[in-house]
Amino acid sequence: MSTPVDTDLLVIGGGISGAGVALAAARRGLRVTLVERDDFASGASSASSKLVHGGLRYLAKGAVHLTAQSLRERERLLRELPGLVQRLPFSLAAGGAASRASTALGLRLYDALARRHARGFDPAATLAWTVPGWHAPQGAHRYDDASTDDARLTLRVLQEARTLGAQLHNRTALEALTRDAQGQVNGAQLRGPDGKAWTLRCRAAVAATGAHLATLADQGGLQAPKLRPLRGSHLLLPLWRLPLARAVAWRHARDGRPVFAYPWLGTLIVGTTDEDHPDPERAPRITAAEQAYLLDALAQAFPRAGIQARDLQCTWAGLRPVLDSGQGLAPSQERRDTLVQASQGLVLLSGGKLTTFIPMAEAALRAAAPWLPPLREPTHPAWFAGGGTPLPPEALRGECLGGTQTRMGEIAWSLQHEQVHHLDDLLLRRTRLGLRQPAFAQALLPVLQTPCQTALGWDGSRWRFEVERYLALMHERHGVIQ
């Protein structure tokens, strides 16, 4: 007689990878439960470069398969999530004649793999009109990629999974995995946001906790994957300070690494670095050296703009869970391959990148299949049958929050339906107001007090605690180094 279970598949981790697994499983008719220790998308899935791209630089390393897969997924997300994933024209500063020829060849292959024609070339005289102030004396190559709001993309995937029956538990910590007499994972001991412990019985589990995967491997009795957590740091400026209409990329004069700047939700993102971050339990934040590196890149590309630290609105850093090749490569030279490792009902999932979360999720589900009921064929070929709207129509009603394009309906919807537990959940991930507004959106806090207290049951003391907690977190992890 089989032991009853509460859910078929337990997914550990509420970033884009875990969200993708939950949706993949729900589409196949499984009962799914997802738990997230902190907040949905609170790790790398809200601190990425926010690009949905094919990985042009992977071609130079011969990773044609990875580029082809990434381009297919880019086009899928553009097609199924219009508005949330948007095409982004890029200009890449050209080098000498040999470099220009090799880049043109790479872009020809890039277009062929994507099955679209987007490449071109602009001489310096044209750039003076299309990208004023950009120092690109050899001209620039044109091509297309895409951008998104990474946190809202993750939440959109979770929303779709929930619509199909997935149970989502935010701010819920895994304390231990449980096993049957044969050593197979059969459940988990969990602790919810209220501090209460509870037990969940399952047939299998997928751990998608990014750079923190080694801890889960130890609990599951698997050999810990050799990960190399890499920190990618970014600057954010108000768009008026450097009003670009398209993305631009160039090579840093110091080390030849590609850097970029592009418009995003009324701001300008500049990135990124690639530095080792050996302790994944230490929250990443930009270092003085990284900030100076990116400011130097701006000075190189836009010498007349005179951008300095005082012009920056905020910063952020995220951890990439990159697989360590063990070859002593520079961080930027490590491949972005996917790890899928399975044993006795536990699947470890890591690596990859934002663009390829769907094939990563499908690979993890295939690995878990031996312990699961038969997988049904999805009832709809599209992953996002509801289209690209990240919020329902009722969330887009009401007046805009002072000086922003965020409507009060969106705030109310998030507070009621998206498992907000702390002020940073609302201002950093459900909306991006904490990043996009000056001084971490402090001017909006008085307007948000009543909606938060009403929806979440906070009294005055709890509101003051949340404000102090939020501002301390923002200064610590998103502040500018003066």
Molecular structure report:
The structure is a single chain. By secondary structure, this protein is α+β, with helices and mostly antiparallel strands. The chain is 33% helix and 24% strand. The chain has helices spanning 16-27, 56-60, 64-80, 97-114, 124-130, 150-163, 213-220, 288-301, 357-368, 408-417, 423-430, 433-436, 445-456, 460-478, and strands at 7-12, 32-35, 51-52, 85-93, 120-122, 140-148, 167-169, 173-179, 185-191, 197-207, 227-238, 247-251, 258-264, 267-271, 275-276, 314-323, 338-343, 346-351. Strands 3, 4, 5, 6, 11, 12, 13, 14, 15 and 16 form a ten-stranded mixed β-sheet that branches. Strands 1, 2, 7, 8, 9, 10, 17 and 18 form an eight-stranded mixed β-sheet that branches. A hairpin with a 6-residue loop joins strand 12 and strand 13 (258-264). The radius of gyration is 23 Å and the shape is globular. The relative contact order is 0.15. The mean pLDDT is 92.
Shape, per Cα inertia axes: globular
Helix content: 25-40%
Q: Give the biggest sheet.
A: 10 strands, mixed
* Spatial gap, N to C terminus: 66 Å
Write down the Rg.
Answer: 23 Å
Fraction of residues in β-strands: 15-25%
User: What's the number of extended β-strand segments?
Assistant: 18
Instruction: Output the structural class.
Output: alpha+beta
Low-confidence stretches: none
